[in-house]
Design brief:
globular, 3-stranded mixed beta sheet, about 260 residues, alpha+beta, 5 helices, binds zinc ion, about 30% strand, Carbonic Anhydrase II
């Protein structure tokens, strides 16, 4: 991370809608300007990817240290098991909407006014937000992709989260990434469907956690197998904001990774 370390906002925590900061949970404000934000939390200790990095996150939420279903993980394709159809994913993200783009101190986060949704076993999960990491957090056979977008969804009834990860590899320019990078602190028009690869029918699935404090568990993860592309310039432009905002991979313990 190259930017000044910013404090975590209620908004950042609230990406999750579950768990959250007991200590400072003011009524969620709109995007808080980073300067104001840093000032407000001047004296408090906050998690980050540097001196208060992943090895210290249990000081912010115990689950980060003791949880046995944490994310990200390394995926070993040869060790995955056949997909349980109960977890089949169907995606309906084709909604043209305006969206706010903020730098929340840990990532660049895009919050659409009207989200699309995914369906798992008849249950709908609404798209809350999507955000980017300067390298992928999950690895496949130990390999990190050049970037990743995490599309965070929530079941409005049960509050369970489901995150769809789309990997980026270096190649041609991505249509959404330029808009995002060029409008941090502003608004964009976006169709989240444009983040997806052609093939959304093949993925890895497992049950994990948020990859940032509070590291809440029981998150349904879907990692699409087909990556999308971003140009070298776009990857570099994003990494001017964040390059090392990824948590190391966590123990699998007795979990299985499913694949189709
Ligand atoms: Zn993420």
């Amino acid at each position: 991370m190259k930017k000044t370390i910013l404090a975590m906002s209620a908004a950042a925590l609230l990406m999750t809608g579950c768990g959250g900061s007991e200590a400072e949970a003011p009524a969620p404000k709109k995007a808080i300007a980073p300067a104001e934000h840093a000032e407000a939390a001047h004296h408090e200790k906050h998690w980050n990817y540097e001196e208060n990095g992943p090895a210290h996150w249990d000081e912010f939420s115990k689950t980060c240290g003791t949880g046995h279903t944490q994310s990200p993980i390394n995926i070993i394709p040869g060790k995955s098991v056949e997909m349980n159809h109960q977890y089949d994913l169907s995606m309906h993200e084709d909604v043209h909407t305006s969206a706010s783009v903020i730098d929340n101190g840990h990532s660049i986060k895009v919050t659409p006014k009207t989200g699309g949704e995914i369906t798992l076993h008849g249950e709908k999960f609404k798209l809350l937000q999507f955000h980017f990491h300067g390298k992928s957090e999950h690895t496949v056979d130990g390999k990190r992709y050049d970037m990743v977008v995490h599309m965070v969804h929530q079941n409005p009834k049960t509050k369970q989260l489901a995150v769809v990860a789309v990997f980026f590899k270096e190649g041609k320019a991505d249509p959404i990434l330029d808009k995002v990078i060029n409008n941090v602190g502003g608004e964009i028009e976006v169709d989240p469907q444009d983040l997806l690869p052609k093939d959304t029918a093949h993925y890895y699935h497992y049950i994990g956690s948020l990859t940032t404090p509070p590291c809440s568990e029981n998150v349904q993860w879907y990692l699409l197998k087909e990556p999308v592309e971003a140009s070298k310039e776009q990857i570099e432009a994003f990494r001017k904001y964040y390059v090392d905002n990824e948590r190391p991979v966590q123990e699998l313990y007795d979990r299985h990774v499913e694949s189709n």
